[in-house]
Amino acid sequence: MPIHNPCALLDRLLQEPNESTWLEFKVNNKDPREIGEYISALANAAMLAGRDRAFMVFGVRDGTRDRVGTDVRLQQLKNGNEDFTNWLSRMIEPRIMLDVLDFECGGLAYSIIAVEPSYERPVKFSGSEFIRIGENKKKLAEFPEHERSLWIATGRRRFESAVAVSNATTDDVFAKLDPDPLFQLTGDPRPNNPDEIIRKMIEYGFLLDNLEGRYDITNLGAILLARDVKMCPSIAGKAVRIVKYVGRDKSKSDFEQEAKEGYAVGFTSIMKFLMDRLPKEERYIGGVRRMVPHFPETAIREVIANALIHQDFIVGGVGPVVEIYENRIEVTNPGNSLISTDRILDERRSRNEKLASTMRAFGLCEERGGGLDKTLIEIEADHLPAPDFISSENSMRVVLFAPRAFGQMSKAEKMRACFFHCVLRWLTHDYMSNATLRERFSLAPEEYQAVSAIIAESIKLGRIAPADPDQGKRNARYVPYWAV
Fold first, then answer.
1. What separation in angstroms does the CA of 459 have from each of 319, 385, 415?
2. pLDDT of res. 278
3. Residue 225: per-residue pLDDT
4. Which residues of 247-258 are buried (b: 16+ CB within 10 A; e: fewer)?
5. 430-477 residue pLDDT tens
6. What is the rounded CA–CA span in Å between residue 399 and residue 390?
7. Angle at CA of residue 167, ends 166 and 173, nearest 5°
8. For residue 300, how far is the Cα from the chain centroid?
């Protein structure tokens, strides 16, 4: 993030109560190697402190904070015959963002280096890693606890924390982001004071104070609250696209719609638009004839929310897609599944933890780990075919199927329904049996043999296993293969 107003930044840094691990004041230190070691130490300290930048300021006396100016001109400095900035970039590993600036304020000369930490691994200078301990620069290897903490911290960096729009004024923020969902979805009262709204957005991680009197909009803030995602280049291709086809293949489309708003702004509208256009059937409910969608709204909501949350934002140019066919819905997100599709109900892993937790706080999806479970429960309650989870190298697709009688299901569909029914029972600390599977398929007791054949084939193929190897057939119970 480039420095836009260095004098405002200097004023803000001098308001810090004391020199911290991410802030260093110097007067006239021109030793390139000493500066390089400080860059490593500041970058690593910023990561541990959760700061998006660290600063080394020349022209301020350490301790007293007196503005004395400096004769250091970083952009003219050399190491041997090589420009200092080129040499420094070559000596720092991995490559990090450095903003090196010489400027004047109040008739005095200053220089500043703004350092963005690495989110890949600890930063080295000339092959060695440094860290700030209090106000002192030390070799990281001398502090193994800090080294371990730093490696953990680098692994926590996510797309959500990166900057989508930098140096935005308050007016820019409100022009690009709609703060209303922040209050409507949480039930918190909306402040009348814009500064308080800004403070709340910073608290949620939607904005960063850039210390220059302006704000940086994070990718998290943009993807959730953008009035139009195309206004933010880093998320421009991440809008939800809905396509409805005529029939069961892609040969002819009925319509295509792209939701331009951020997910929190537009999620309710997306769901209404989608539910109004899903295939429906006529049912009598409480003696009243109603047109009911083929798919439970809760199941649709959770599958779409899951696609938004678990997508890989690094995959460029493509966002979540909802495709409606005559006999199914397919929801696809960029990025493969981080876990095996066989464990998709009981294992938890997310690429985008901040996005997931915020959407849960906003009530846009179930509590952690409950979304797809609830999808399967709703589908079983309506006796629909089990969904299919398809993970490829660069995408994850969930297929929800329209109602189909047991006799119309393929062998693969029956086996899939058996497996996920077994998983759901296991998640409630219970077991699948012939009786529970008959109920799942809406079959009469006398059709137990058809269900027994599915169970036997599932055991043969290693999809399920007897809960007790010595159990008899009369009261046999079963668990997923991985639970044995």
1. 38, 20, 10
2. 86
3. 97
4. eeeeeeeeeebe
5. 999 999 999 999 999 999 999 999 999 999 999 999 999 888 887 899
6. 8
7. 85
8. 20
Separation of alpha carbons 477 and 4, rounded Å: 68
Rounded distance, CA 5 to CA 7, Å? Answer: 6
Phi, psi of 250 (to 5 degrees): -90, 10
Three-state SS string over the chain comes to: CCCCCHHHHHHHHCCCCCCCCCEEEECCCCCHHHHHHHHHHHHHHHHHHCCCCEEEEECECCCCCCECCCCCCCCCCEECCEEHHHHHHHHEECCCCEEEEEEEECCEEEEEEEECCCCCCCCEECCEEEEEECCEEEEHHHCHHHHHHHHHHHHHCCHHHCEEEEEECHHHHHHHECCHHHHHCCCCCCCCCHHHHHHHHHHCCCEEECCCCCEEEEHHHHHHHECCHHHCHHHCCCCEEEEEECCCCCCCEEEEEEECCCHHHHHHHHHHHHHHHCCEEEEEECCEEEEEECCCHHHHHHHHHHHHHHCCCCCCCCCCEEEECCCEEEEEEECCCCCCHHHCCCCCCCCCHHHHHHHHHCCCCCCCCCHHHHHHHHHHHCCCCCCEEEECCCEEEEEEECCCCHHHCCHHHHHHHHHHHHHHHHHCCCCECHHHHHHHHCCCHHHHHHHHHHHHHHHHCCCEEECCCCCCCCCCCEEEHHHC
- pLDDT value of residue 367: 55
- C-alpha span between 312 and 176 (Å, rounded): 23
% pLDDT > 90, the chain: 60
The model's pTM is 0.74
Beta bridge partners of 215: 168, 209
Helix 448-460 × helix 411-427 angle, to 10°: 80
